[in-house]
Amino acid sequence: MKRTRPRWRTTFRKLFWSCGISGRRTRYFERGLYLQKGKTTLDYTYLDELVRRGQQGDKAALETLLLAFKPLLWSVIGRYVYDRGALEDAYQEACVVFMEGVRDFALEAGVYFQTFMRGRLVNYFLKRREGRFSTSVTGAVSLDMPVEGEDGAVALIELILDERADVEGACVASEQRKACLRALKKLSPGQREVLRWQYLGKGTLSQLAAQKGVSPAAVTQTHKRALAAMKRYL
């Protein structure tokens, strides 16, 4: 396998991870993990330290891990989720599965973290595609799960790095709960329904569309308008 020589520019480096999965070597372009100057391979000691800190509730460590493995999450989603309208929901589920994996990973087991995590994600989305559960992430972890950090508790959803992170983070931050409730009252009944459906764990937007007998695109559009309105009111 051709070796790459990363150029030292900043503390956070772009790097390639090579991991053998099911007899094949799969290469991921990752970013966000520290690589010491002069090294040409991933510093697994630092990766283990990030996982250890994440298991202790370190927000910065969890955020770094989630950012670094974001390409892996999307790779698995792209392979097992065929409904393009369900990609956002699938990504949120993948983030929860990832956080559960960080919590459950045994550092002393002698297994590569990325190998463990890919297997966990693949297993989850295989079951999801086969209909063996609906949006079944375990009740022990949810998007509103508090994660303890040096600056106090934050919601897990704040660690999901997508375009809506600021809006959703504001809604779950304890110091803005009252403002969030006031903003919710200003939304239309349909907009409130779609937000409550998703963030109270009732199901995916696609499932809500099926229940209401409308197209998934219509529900997705309502969801986007609701988030935009919340951002204005907050």
UniProtKB/TrEMBL annotation:
Keyword Zinc-finger in record: no
Protein name stated in the entry: Sigma-70 family RNA polymerase sigma factor
Top-level taxon: Bacteria
Chain ranges of the RNA polymerase sigma-70 region domain: 68-128, 183-231
Organism: Eubacterium maltosivorans
InterPro entries: RNA_pol_sigma-70_dom, RNA_pol_sigma70_r2, RNA_pol_sigma70_r4, RNA_pol_sigma_r2, RNA_pol_sigma_r3/r4-like
One of the GO BP terms on file: DNA-templated transcription initiation
Record keyword Cell inner membrane present: no
NCBIfam families: sigma70-ECF
GO molecular function terms listed in the Swiss-Prot or TrEMBL record: DNA binding; sigma factor activity
Keywords (A to Z) from UniProt: DNA-binding, Sigma factor, Transcription, Transcription regulation
